[in-house]
Amino acid sequence: MSIDARLSELNITLPAAPAPAANYVPAVQSGNLLFVSGQIPAGPEGLIRGRLGADMDVAAGAQAARACGLALLAQARAALGSLDRIARVVKLTGFVASTPDFTDQPEVVNGCSDLMVEVFGDRGRHARAAVSAPALPRGVAVEVEAVFEIA
């Protein structure tokens, strides 16, 4: 099954690939790897802002991470022409805006990780880091970057 068919089966619509907010490119292919720049979460009302442990709970943070994952897939499709070219999700790095005492960063970043497994199956299982940050760009709750292997 194609990835587009899988997305349709899951009732997932990818957003347009966001334009870079500064002096960088959204994705770089080097050999058979595609490095996608960190993506921040957006929803129908705009950017998903907040700080875990202060004004956002784990479930809302996981939804923000999922939105980052959708943006990562949109960037990958824009760079490659088709998500069918992805052989494997190699690594995700998730940054979570959180208070010093908040320790559930892994559960927040699961929002993105779970999406990758939903979409790609076993090819979506990946290495990962989930780290805390006192603040993220534009006040968003989460930022996630990805490395994909290209077939």
Strand content: 25-35%
Mean pLDDT: 97
CATH fold descriptor: 60s Ribosomal Protein L30, Chain: A
Task: Work out the oligomeric state of the chains in this entry.
Answer: single chain
User: What is the helical fraction, as a range of percent?
Assistant: 25-40%
Helix-strand string: HEEEEHEHEE
Gyration radius, to the nearest Å?
A: 14 Å
Tell me, what's the shape?
A: globular
SS elements, strand count: 7
Q: How many separate domains?
A: 1
Biggest β-sheet strands, sense, barrel: 5 strands, mixed
Number of helical stretches of at least 4 residues: 3
Strand order of the largest sheet: 1-2-7-5-6
Quickly name the level 1 CATH class. Answer: Alpha Beta
Q: In angstroms, what separates the terminal alpha carbons?
A: 16 Å
Low-confidence stretches: none
In short, what is this structure?
The chain is of the alpha+beta class. The chain contains 3 helices and 7 strands.
Topology:
Blueprint: H1 3-9, E1 27-30, E2 33-39, E3 42-43, E4 46-47, H2 58-80, E5 86-97, H3 105-120, E6 127-133, E7 142-150
Structural features, described:
This protein is of the alpha+beta class. It has helices at 3-9, 58-80, 105-120; strands at residues 27-30, 33-39, 42-43, 46-47, 86-97, 127-133, 142-150. The strands form two sheets. The protein has a five-stranded mixed β-sheet. The chain is globular and about 40 Å long.
List keywords for this structure.
60s Ribosomal Protein L30, Chain: A; 7 strands; alpha+beta; 151 residues
